[in-house]
């Protein structure tokens, strides 16, 4: 089976799984309906090719998941504290974060991981330049902006460590934190 055909089958399976989850029960009608809807969607709105050139690393994946869960808990507590501080208006910022591995897959995974953590939301993803624009709550000064940007780059490094190729791992280990000419 060719790679594009395999990628389409994976996309159909994923969309069908989401369809079944939305209906709440895995009946035959839901599965067949999901397959039909997924096939039509992929024919009408073809997805750009996203290739996976890396290798799954179990230790890297465990680090990624454990740190993600810890970040999820910490961010939830921080947002709860912000929500219950009466009379305080939290400051926010939109921060541009140029990724060191600007592949479509890395851009998507990093954006999804950031969006799942409370207090941060992807405003835009510049696919051509590999830059994520992130809205962040509770930013008070430039130092916090830089800490958040560095945190995003560390998240990217954990994702690449879990799923990336050796060349991508070298990029996250040796590349500067902010590329020249990138917006701040």
Automatic annotation (TrEMBL):
Q: Which GO terms describe its cellular component?
A: plasma membrane
Q: Name the source's superkingdom.
A: Bacteria
Q: Which Pfam families does this chain map to?
A: MNHE
Per the record, the major location class is: membrane
Q: Does the keyword Metal-binding apply?
A: no
Q: Which UniProt keywords apply?
A: Cell membrane, Membrane, Transmembrane, Transmembrane helix
Q: Where are the transmembrane segments?
A: 31-52, 64-84
Q: Name one GO molecular function term.
A: monoatomic cation transmembrane transporter activity
What InterPro entries has UniProt attached to this entry? Answer: Cation_antiport_E (IPR002758)
| Protein topology in the membrane | Multi-pass membrane protein
Q: From the Swiss-Prot or TrEMBL record, state where the protein is found.
A: Cell membrane
PANTHER family referenced in this protein's UniProt entry, alphabetically: NA(+)/H(+) ANTIPORTER SUBUNIT E1, NA(+)_H(+) ANTIPORTER SUBUNIT E1
Hey, which family's this protein in? Belongs to the CPA3 antiporters (TC 2.A.63) subunit E family.
Identification of the protein by name: Na+/H+ antiporter subunit E
UniProt source species: Paractinoplanes rishiriensis
**Lineage from the top down?**
Bacteria, Bacillati, Actinomycetota, Actinomycetes, Micromonosporales
């Amino acid at each position: 089976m060719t790679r594009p055909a395999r990628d389409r089958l994976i996309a159909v399976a994923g969309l069908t799984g989401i369809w079944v989850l939305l209906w709440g029960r895995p009946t035959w009608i839901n599965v067949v309906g999901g397959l039909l809807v997924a096939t039509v969607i992929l024919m009408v709105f073809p997805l750009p090719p996203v290739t996976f050139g890396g290798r799954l690393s179990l230790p890297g994946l465990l680090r990624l998941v454990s740190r993600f869960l810890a970040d999820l808990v910490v961010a939830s507590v921080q947002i709860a504290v912000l929500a219950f501080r009466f009379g305080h208006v939290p400051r926010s910022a939109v921060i541009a974060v140029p990724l060191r591995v600007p592949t479509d897959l890395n851009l998507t995974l990093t954006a999804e991981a950031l969006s799942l953590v409370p207090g941060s939301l992807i405003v835009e993803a510049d696919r051509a330049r590999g830059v994520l624009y992130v809205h962040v709550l509770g930013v008070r000064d430039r130092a916090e902006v830089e800490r958040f940007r560095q945190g995003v780059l560390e998240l990217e490094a954990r994702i690449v460590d879990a799923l990336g190729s050796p060349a991508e791992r070298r990029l996250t280990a040796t590349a500067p934190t902010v590329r020249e000419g990138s917006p701040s």
